[in-house]
Amino acid sequence: MSSVFQNAFYIGNNFNTIMYGVELTVYILTIQAIRRKPRPSATDKVLVIFSTILLLLNTIFVATESVFGEEMWVVNANYPGGSDAYLEDFASVWYQTFGTAASIVLNLFSDALMIYRCYIIWANVRPVLFPIVLYLASFSLGIAQLVASGVPHSNYFAGLAQKLGTAYTSSIISLEIILTALICGRILYVAQRCARGSARALAYTGSAAITIESALPCTLLGIAYLVTFARGDDVSIFFLSIYVMSTCLAPQMIILRVVSGHAWSLDTTDAIMTASS
């Protein structure tokens, strides 16, 4: 691995801590929004559990990346062959595999929520049938990649693990592109059909609503990671870091909108059309 990879890894770890702070803030805001309700619903309670799981998985990823960075650059600074040799020898250490597993499960949780939100926004199960099939394929590839990268002396960024990683990343990013397109398309369609300038319509069809509901930033970061990873670019580790963090932050932002009463529900389209008529 080149010095570019090492620098990208280091910068990625720094971005992890910054984005983790943002995620923790949004999580706290979510809990506060639910606690302000006189009687939290069953859905609210499920979302608390879901949010907590996301945070725990994200914490595992951030912690394992930080520990590995410390071991490579500080504790074993004089390792024979330098940090590149240490990375080659210990890339599959148990806690790195644990962190990779956490990131894959986090991604699957995030995309499961996206599929559900797509169903809610369309109020129809047919648009999500193909995404569900693609989701199941991504799950299988994710397990295969995890096994390959966890084999002693294997490397997430080389050999079979990289090939499986490219297949897994391609399927999961394709899924996110499809879901983002479906959600954006539906919201824009409703925005075109309703009266312009309606306060109720803008709350659900404005740029902020489209960006958050569709998890657009997460999808764009995923595309950047997929391109660099497939090409074998050393900066792919940086995009991996911020992409994984976004797979926690993006769904948490959606959940915050849901518990605050600003997210789409099954009857939102009819309500907007009625208010705009």
UniProtKB/TrEMBL annotation:
Keywords: Membrane, Transmembrane, Transmembrane helix. It comes from the Eukaryota. The chain crosses the membrane at residues 17-34, 46-64, 93-116, 128-148, 168-189, 201-225, 237-256. This is Uncharacterized protein.
